[in-house]
Amino acid sequence: MPTAIIADDERLMRDQLRMRLGQVWPELEIIGEAKNGDEAIDLVDELDPDFTFLDIRMPGKTGMEAASVIGNKSIIVFVTAYDAYAVEAFERGAIDYVLKPPEQERLQITVDRLKARFNKPAAAAATDVNASVTAMLAQLTEKIAAPKPAHLQWIQASIGQDLRMIPVEEILFFRSDEKYTCVQTEKYEALIRKPVRDLAEELDPALFWQIHRATLVNVNAIEGVTRDIRGRHLVMIKGRPDKLEVSRSFLHLFKQM
């Protein structure tokens, strides 16, 4: 039975990749998961997987830095959202890749490649991070190392078993409960595990206002503010029945309204 580990700092992405791999390669056993490159290196040493699925950009050691340490201990498969330049380089190199979010048809191509390698003698199947591949990784590292956008541009959120990539400008509001944060758009509701306090630090404060410890609202979605019979201030959302409570700490945002 072929074995693999998955390394990605996003739990939803790990779950999505595990599910998709189970659909296209049910014989593959996922024997471990890591949240960063350092954990991936430790798991490879501990579990000796045939394949290692590495997210390119993770906290601590990146996927590429982890790949240079793992070397030929496991066949490397990069998981990347950077198809604008990464795909071309991977096509020329000795390393396979999966695009985010993993689509079944494209993942099947990668799985077919991996099966072909797995059926070869071990020495021929091992992915050796040799001089040419190292040069390719160095080139990609330089491009990917560019600073991240100052604010989140999209949100990865789940709807049932599906993962959606939602541009932040399409989101009307975020509202948290004890376990999940609801991501509300005009067309659907999705869920993430990231709390509002973390989102407030990562989203553009000119676009999303925090109006409650559990609520962020897109300023472009605000129709107005009203009061209920208890004297609470409520934000009305354009085209929707939702009314979002404003806590006293954030009333100053609406002093001009």
TrEMBL record:
<feature type="domain" description="HTH LytTR-type">
    <location>
        <begin position="155"/>
        <end position="257"/>
    </location>
</feature>
<feature type="modified residue" description="4-aspartylphosphate">
    <location>
        <position position="55"/>
    </location>
</feature>
<dbReference type="InterPro" id="IPR001789">
    <property type="entry name" value="Sig_transdc_resp-reg_receiver"/>
</dbReference>
<protein>
    <submittedName>
        <fullName>Response regulator</fullName>
    </submittedName>
</protein>
<dbReference type="Pfam" id="PF04397">
    <property type="entry name" value="LytTR"/>
</dbReference>
<dbReference type="GO" id="GO:0003677">
    <property type="term" value="F:DNA binding"/>
</dbReference>
<dbReference type="GO" id="GO:0000156">
    <property type="term" value="F:phosphorelay response regulator activity"/>
</dbReference>
<feature type="domain" description="Response regulatory">
    <location>
        <begin position="3"/>
        <end position="115"/>
    </location>
</feature>
<dbReference type="InterPro" id="IPR046947">
    <property type="entry name" value="LytR-like"/>
</dbReference>
<dbReference type="Pfam" id="PF00072">
    <property type="entry name" value="Response_reg"/>
</dbReference>
<keyword id="KW-0597">Phosphoprotein</keyword>
<dbReference type="InterPro" id="IPR011006">
    <property type="entry name" value="CheY-like_superfamily"/>
</dbReference>
<dbReference type="InterPro" id="IPR007492">
    <property type="entry name" value="LytTR_DNA-bd_dom"/>
</dbReference>
